[in-house]
């Protein structure tokens, strides 16, 4: 059975510690060889756009752009369809490698064998 971790992050700059924790856990899991799928929802949706992660600051935390880059390189990053629409984010607006998908895809990911899911 393969190991897969699905993380749904709802927090952004509005709750920086929760946001940073989600990205940190996801990046550490990827570095440990775990298959990771990070879902950007709510205020974290903005991090699907170029230049947004560099504006995020949290003392004593790993830089968000580096965490996001590692996830885009070795994991999967998905932007919630409805969250994107509410913010006027179109598929061509996102960072390369970010897909836009909805609840059906999220449910299929979390219901697969060997999957652990976390929500931040």
Q: In words, what does this structure look like?
A:
- With 120 residues, the chain is an alpha/beta fold.
- The protein has one domain: DsrEFH-like (Hypothetical Protein Ychn, Chain: A).
- Helices cover 34% and strands 22% of the residues.
- It has four helices and five strands.
- It has helices spanning 16-31, 64-74, 81-86, 103-110; strands at residues 4-9, 35-40, 76-80, 98-101, 115-119.
- It has a five-stranded parallel beta sheet.
- The longest helix has 16 residues, at 16-31.
- The chain is globular and about 35 Å long.
- The chain starts with a strand and ends with a strand.
Range of helix content = 25-40%
What would CATH call the class? Alpha Beta
Silhouette: globular
Structural class: alpha/beta
Number of domains: 1
The oligomeric state of the chains shown is: single chain
Q: Give the end-to-end Cα distance, rounded to a whole number of Å.
A: 25 Å
Would you tell me which CATH topology applies?
Hypothetical Protein Ychn, Chain: A
Q: How many runs of DSSP E, i.e. beta strands?
A: 5
Major sheet: 5 strands, parallel
* CATH fourth-tier homologous superfamily: DsrEFH-like
Mean pLDDT: 96
Count of DSSP-assigned helices:
4
Core attributes:
five-stranded parallel beta sheet; Hypothetical Protein Ychn, Chain: A; Sulfur reduction protein DsrE; 34% helix; single chain; alpha/beta; 120 residues; Sulphur_relay_DsrE/F-like
